[in-house]
Amino acid sequence: MKKHPEILVAGGAGYIGSHAVRDLHAAGFTPLIADNLSKGHREAVVCGELLEGDLKDEFFLDRIFENHSIQGVMHFAGKCFVGESMSDPAIYYEENISSALTLLRAMLKHGVNNFIFSSSCATYGNPVSLPLRETHPQDPVNPYGETKYFIERILKHYDRAYGLRFCALRYFNAAGASLDARIGESHDPETHLIPRILGTVTGKFEKIQIFGDDYPTSDGTCLRDYIHVSDLASAHRKALLWILENDASEFFNLGTGTAYSVRQILESAQKTTGAEIPFEKAPRRPGDLTELVADPGRAINILDWQPEYSDLDTIMESAWKWERHRRY
Ligand code: UDP
Prior knowledge:
The chain contains 10 helices and 14 strands. By secondary structure, it is α/β, with parallel strands linked by helices. The strands form 4 sheets. A 7-stranded parallel β-sheet has the order 3-2-1-4-5-6-11, with helices on both faces. Strands 12-9-14 form a 3-stranded mixed β-sheet. It is globular, with a radius of gyration of 19 Å. The mean pLDDT is 97.
């Protein structure tokens, strides 16, 4: 491998992508960030070169591959809200699938065949057994998960037919922010649980709604496996190194194996912030599943990866520090 290899990070100005960019830079790679800034933030690019443009614009991509010696591509760009995908599925199918196809076409045309893809635990659908292993059947129940699943299928065939090598990383719930609070989560509108709760503390939102308290769980609220965004970032780097060393493709869960309920997250936020956080019960959100929890064993064993920052205290404290100091 070349010294300081160039890695194209599509969507590198977004929440998870910007953490991956910093992690790559710290590990001696040269990240190039392709982002149209429709959802990403210029301020989130704290290292590497920002190349502003759209992934559906093949000429934009051609220029990048012609002007750089890219060793691999990480693809974070795309729409990422379960609820929105239920109310407006068209933008999910159009945006997520067409940008992935254009990016893959440009890569292969320019002889770049190492690809790390942001997939999701939403590709599994309703769990028939828990914790979820990578071999669990995939039958997504919302368009967001379905677009991720379709792209996984595309990758499998591109591997067989075109020699693409990929890792599809099935994230559970990305959470937290960089420990120095320089970068963090910033969506507009914000729908994710932890930033909604913390935004209630800072007065951005009036109260937090708990979507459903009649699920078959111990306190009636949904269970999710929260994984710190810096742990996701390190997993991407390790997955890329694994592809480069092994010339192989694989699917990996990225979670911790521990699930917390919506109420437990609320309690953790109350403890961290010292605030009494107003909440109300609300109807279930369409597309939500009762429980999602990972078996992360494959990533731990094969990628030699370990979640380091994903205990709930570190997640909440880093998210709270970010919420108080955020610049975007
Ligand atoms: N949730 C909630 N109130 C909110 C936002 C989310 O009760 O304002 C619940 C949501 O129904 C799910 C969990 O919190 O059970 C995590 O939701 P989030 O949108 O953060 O991530 P998702 O699991 O949908 O990817």
